[in-house]
Amino acid sequence: MEKIVFATNNLHKLEEVRNIVGERMQILSLSDIGCTDDIPETADTIEGNALIKARYIKNKYGYDCFSDDTGLEIKALNNEPGVYSARYAGENGNASKNIEKVLSKLKGIKNRKAHFRTCIALITGKEVHLFEGKIEGEIMEERKGFSGFGYDSIFKPVGSDLSFAEMGEEEKNKISHRAIAVQKLAIHLMNI
After folding, report:
1. CA 175 from centroid of its chain's CA atoms
2. pTM (2 d.p.)
3. How big is the CA angle at 145 (ends 143 and 148), to the nearest 5 degrees?
C-alpha cells in the first residue's frame, strides 16, 4: 500500500480524511513520521498556507505529502475570518472564542451567507497540485449540535436543516468542503 503524509496534527482532520480515502492508501500523520515542528502558516491566502506546510514536509523529511488549509468566509464580514479562521479570536483564542467573535460581529445582520473553502496542496516527486472544495451555507444565530469541530456548530450548509455539528461524521463527510477537495485528491492519486 502506498504511503503519503498528511501534514497535520489535527486528529479530527486526519480521521475525516482517512474515512474519505478509505483503504486506497495509508495516510501518515506528522506524529507518525516523528515531526513535532511548529510549521508556520504565514501566507495571506488559504492556498499559500497549504503550500507552505506541504513544501516544509517534502523538503525536510522527503515524503510525498499533502496539506490543507481551510477558511470560513462570511459575505457580510468581507470574507472574514478566511485565512485567519483558526486564530480569529487571537493568539489565545480557541474554537469557542472564534465562534463567539463571529456571532458577535453578525449580531443584527440579516445576510448570513457564508462558505467553507478548503485547499489541498499535494507534492509528489517534483509535481505540485492544488485541489479546492467549497460548500455554500449560512451562519446560524446560535450553536447547534455537538459533533465536528471548529465552526461546525454554527454553519448550516445549503439544502440542510442541520448544522455540520448536528450531522453525523458520515453524513458530513459526503458533502463537506474537505470531502470535495479530498475526493479530487483521491481521484488524482488513483490516476498516477
Report:
1. 13
2. 0.87
3. 105
Closest to 100 in 3D by CA, of 111, 89, 87, 84:
89
**pLDDT tens digit string along 27-66?**
999 999 999 998 988 999 999 999 999 999 999 999 999 9
Q: What is the DSSP string of 137-191?
A: EEE-SS---SSS-TTGGGEEETT-SS-GGGS-HHHHHHHSHHHHHHHHHHHHHHT
Give catalytic residue positions.
69
Neighbour-count burial of 155, counting CB atoms closer than 10 A to its CB (0-12 exposed, 13-18 middle, 19+ buried): buried
**Domain 3-190 grouped into CATH 3.90.950.10:** yes
Q: What is the pLDDT of residue 192?
A: 67
Do β-strands 127-139 and 155-157 pair in parallel, antiparallel, or remain unpaired? antiparallel
pLDDT above 90: percentage of residues in the chain: 69
* Percentage with pLDDT > 70 across the chain: 99
Q: Are strands 65-74 and 3-6 parallel, antiparallel or unpaired?
A: parallel
Break the chain into its structural domains and give their ranges.
3-190
Q: Which three cell numbers stand for residue 127?
A: 509535481
CA distance linking residue 61 with residue 100, whole number of Å: 38
